[in-house]
Design goal:
The protein has 187 residues and is mainly α. It is built from 8 helices and 4 strands.
Length: 187
């Protein structure tokens, strides 16, 4: 009788260990797939700014790349991120591979991730005091230059290109949020 119990206990331990090994491998495969997907997103974004494959990107595009990957650190955090990849403070370009490694770390931990759709809608609702559901280009520029972290002239130009509807010359937050989330989910 005791022999049967011992044999059954040994079997259950053996199968338990096997299940744990399988679960561990599945988790590892899932993690590797996540890292590969993150690397693909980063490489796709970098390709626009390094079309010749030189492995170097102009420093001016650092913030744009970080934002394109749906990360929104504040200015101090952005400066810290840039310093981690920049070897020479006088260099006008940064290395793609260093950027990629840094962004894999950032994105795999969901660090600096953008807000949810509900949070963004609530924030824009506070700014939309007239409850129009949109901002004129001038109103939008005024907001970008007067509250929160102040945008540089280049950042304003980039933001306007991405947000202002050329036909109506307005910024519609709901459309922007939708496009932002669709873009984030397809990458």
């Amino acid at each position: 009788m005791d022999f049967k119990k011992a044999k059954n206990r040994k079997k259950s331990t053996k199968f338990g260990r096997r299940n744990t090994d399988i679960a561990s491998r599945m988790s590892q495969d899932s993690t590797e797939a996540k890292f590969m997907k993150i690397q693909e997103r980063i490489k796709a974004s970098l390709g626009v700014y390094d079309p010749d494959g030189t492995g170097l990107v102009d420093n001016r595009y650092f913030k744009t790349l970080v934002y394109a990957l749906h990360r929104v650190p504040n200015n101090n955090q952005m400066d810290d991120m840039f310093e981690t990849i920049q070897e020479d403070k006088n260099a006008e370009q940064f290395f793609v591979d260093k950027f990629e490694k840094m962004m894999v770390r950032v994105m795999s931990t969901d660090r600096y991730k953008s807000s949810s759709a509900k949070e963004l809608e609530a924030a824009f609702a506070v700014l939309d005091v007239d409850k129009k559901g949109y901002f004129t280009a001038d109103e939008w520029i005024a907001l970008l230059t007067s509250s929160g972290e102040i945008f540089t002239e280049d950042e304003i130009k980039e933001t306007l290109k991405m947000t202002i509807d050329p036909e109506t010359e307005t910024f519609v937050p709901s459309t922007y949020i939708h496009n932002l989330l669709v873009d984030e989910n397809t990458h």
